[in-house]
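ARCHIVE RECORD
Type: protein–small molecule complex
Small molecule: beta-L-fucopyranose
Source of inputs: curated submission
Record status: active
Notes field left blank by submitter.
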Amino acid sequence: MKIIQWSTILLFIIILHSCISPTQTTPPAPYGAIPTKEQTDWQQLEYYMFVHFGTNTFSNVEWGDGKEDPKIFNPSGVDCRQWAATAKAAGMKGIIITAKHHDGFCLWQSNFSTHTVRESAWKDGKGDLLQELSDACREFGLKFGVYLSPWDRNHPAYGTPDYNQVFANTLNEVLSSYGEVFEQWFDGANGEGHEGKKQVYDWELFHKTVYRNQPHAIIFSDVGPGCRWMGNEQGVAGETNWATMNTEGFEPGSGAPDPSVLNTGEQGGKAWVPAEVDVSIRPGWFYSPATDDKVKTVEKLMDIYYTSVGRNANLLLNVPPDRRGRIHPNDSTRLMEFRKAREMAFANDLSAKADIKASNTRANSAEYSVGNILDNDYNTYWAVDDDTLMASIEIDLKEAQTFNRLLLQEYIPLGQRITAVSVEYMDAVAQTWRELTRATTVGYKRILRFPAVTAQKVRIEFTAAACPVVSAIGIYRSPEQLATPAIARSMAGVVSIECDTPDAAIFYTIDNSEPSETSKKYTGAFPLRDGGTVKAIAIADNANRSETVTARFDIAPEGWNIILPHGDDVKNMIDGDVHTSAKAKINSFITIDLAQSYMLNGFCYVPLADVQAANMYRYDLEVSVDNNNWMQVAVNAAFDNIANNPVEQAVRFDKPVEARIIKITPRESVTGSSECVIAEVGIITR
Ligand code: FUL
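STRUCTURE (tokenized, with ligand):
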């Protein structure tokens, strides 16, 4: 009797429960390749610091040749706690250090190299930079990662099969000695050229060594497997950016897919290899005093943020410590300003309290309701029925609001599914929907920028390869950034300064002092034929001021005669416009008559700012005062990292040389083509 009573009650409870709880349904099936737990966690880090530090910090070169005296590594006041404190205050989540760059110099006391901190002058050869940095990262709650270059210009075994074991031993040493490593960075770069050493890498051995020591580490390379390079060093991931790509049969370095494929990933790719954007806060990767006033502006850094984190990629921003072993104040100040700008841009989510409705909800289940998009929990999402590949949401902000940013997030543990997004707003006067913007992929995070619009209602339509699954949206009004002025000088040596913000006043100096509203107001172009330093700021009506931009000029090319090559385009190489270029054949001369003799301290070559361009990689340089007797200044010299980072190359000579005529012989282009391109050529007399 008692038993019957209890089972009746139980049955009653079950019936009651099924009446009041929503219909249960299964989550959408994952689509295509999906991330591991580690990859999903990694993606949520979003932003962390790259640190290039080593012998190159002291030699003004980007790629040491491995023959440099290790004694030059002698920072006067290394302070890894300052790096970590700066990274933390900048809002970064970790630090990746160049434990060994291409020169082979090891920042720890490696037993597998004789080119290390042990052989350096730093701390009488007793220091261990990896120990100091990993300790500092732990103290500041940051993740610690290591960069190790497989290409090694110092190790005698490089280029032989023995090197693979040496490199595996090196990896093993680093990855077993400094606690948890969140990311292992394998650089694919190799500047050996056609004639150089060839090394067939044993990637299987390297990967095994990483995972044996650090089972949760993300392995970066051109082709992953943890995350991938996205094809340039300018900070610009593809507008379409899939975290998936086909990696089978490819290798890091020259065996990698074309940079254009790395840039966008591939829809339906078999591997989940999300993009990481690596870019330096300065023009080069290593510190040089010459770049102290070339730290990227907040405007530029914000752009990079939108084309990295805002395009489904993580941002690895390089901040190279100076010769003391500290982050230079110009860089740290900029990092704090950048943080502030991000915070201001995303301070107030206008959709937080909005009403939201969806065209479809998966099995009409509360579990997948569109409200999940606004609940600040990445792990809850709005999902639709399996056969629904197009679905929309409508957001009612309850009152008219002005906004210019839209943030979208897919729930990536179920794969990357969205192929197109179309955004409309309700025109209150005409009572009709108007197109606001469009996009292709979303992925973990996508941020769309558009001119500010005022509206109460927003409609977003998603098209997807499998029913869309959306975790979050945000609607923001980011303050419009005052554009930094751009300074240019013509062939005749006339300087002009422009600012994209209309009505902003420009003030400038030419005596190296900081410009302010009391400096000279720019009213028109002015001559600066003999060179000098121009610093400028823009100030808007509302007293908002831009950052200072600095441009340093040498002697203007007025009156120069390009003797060779011939052609209509040759003037482009001295016209002061970095967007126009001339072409020259490999192994033929570029001969320029400077119209008078100068004592030259160096020369500069400006490539086209495009990784696909046939920029000059190797060259010879000769100079002459009479076009008859020639002096060799450089033979088969290289612009080190120009293939990946095509920025101005300023080459300083060991000692000044007198010259009226310079002759450059391009020996190799970065693409191996029979011609190379030259945006600008200049001389350094200062
Ligand atoms: C490149 C290297 O050659 C550069 O020197 C730098 O380390 C950059 C992050 O990767 O491939």
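CURATOR ANNOTATION: The CA atoms of residues 111 and 666 lie 40 Å apart.
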